[in-house]
């Protein structure tokens, strides 16, 4: 692994014992710590460790394998509840970065389809299917059609009611505002619904946004979506398309999500971040945020500002 990575450790409180354990994992994998600095953020602390790591060693054949082994060891260490992300410097040092987020249970705290289902009396059924889909146990498009079908007949007015119920994740506004102020590009892509995402994207000033369209006829939901479903392949495609349109290389991209539908997007990014995610997503993510603070992503991407 070449010395092109930085380790960022974060927790509500980073204890000396936690940091000692993290340093031990890093040095145990042949990395030396070139420099170290502490940062204070709303709701959490971070320590940034600049790494110099060997290009070969440990009997592993590729840089990707060595990086995966280091990340796995840091996760297993779980020192004092601290998380540690090994972030490519191509992202941290980029003049312009591209950040793309899932919406439900990532940018916002809720699952919109469950809020809609509460109006239809089908919340329990929909929640069960949603959870299975996010664990990767069901085909997303098939599960979406099944869940949306339970909404047939609801008046269009419920969309405005649900929109008023939306709660942004802690740090979401800070993440978008700071990233935008620093000249970076921020996008959201959702397996949810454009009728909810579009006004939210306008409110936050997102550069790009895409979600499914609920079909509405004569003022009522039909129980169908219009057009192709925004699935995991679509999310990855939008990362590539929007970052290219913004003139930003994939090496300077970060994708944040919580469910199986986000895995392709996370894999396509320079840094794929699991945000309070399902176990199957955490297991393959480049980094994890297991605090209810979305703006931990600011520390990972090295986005500064007031």
What does the model show?
This protein is of the alpha/beta class and 306 residues long. The protein has a domain at 1-93: Alpha-Beta Plaits (2-Layer Sandwich). Helices cover 42% and strands 25% of the residues. The protein has 14 helices and eleven strands. It has helices spanning 16-28, 63-77, 89-92, 103-107, 112-120, 123-134, 140-149, 157-165, 172-181, 194-204, 232-245, 263-268, 279-282, 296-301, and strands at residues 5-11, 32-41, 44-52, 83-88, 98-101, 185-193, 208-217, 220-226, 253-257, 271-275, 287-289. A seven-stranded mixed sheet has the order 8-7-6-5-9-10-11, with helices on both faces. Strand 9, helix 12 and strand 10 form a beta-alpha-beta unit. Helix 5 packs across helix 8. The protein starts with a strand and ends in a 5-residue tail after the last helix.
Task: Supply the key terms.
single chain, 306 residues, alpha/beta, Alpha-Beta Plaits, 7-stranded mixed sheet, 4-stranded antiparallel sheet, 14 helices, 42% helix
Q: Characterize the overall form.
A: elongated
* H/I helix tally: 14
Outline the biggest β-sheet.
Answer: 7 strands, mixed
CATH architecture of the domain at 1-93: 2-Layer Sandwich
Proportion of residues in extended strands: 15-25%
Map the helices and strands.
Layout: E1 5-11, H1 16-28, E2 32-41, E3 44-52, H2 63-77, E4 83-88, H3 89-92, E5 98-101, H4 103-107, H5 112-120, H6 123-134, H7 140-149, H8 157-165, H9 172-181, E6 185-193, H10 194-204, E7 208-217, E8 220-226, H11 232-245, E9 253-257, H12 263-268, E10 271-275, H13 279-282, E11 287-289, H14 296-301
Parallel strand pairs: 5-6, 5-9, 6-7, 9-10, 10-11
Antiparallel strand pairs: 1-3, 1-4, 2-3, 7-8
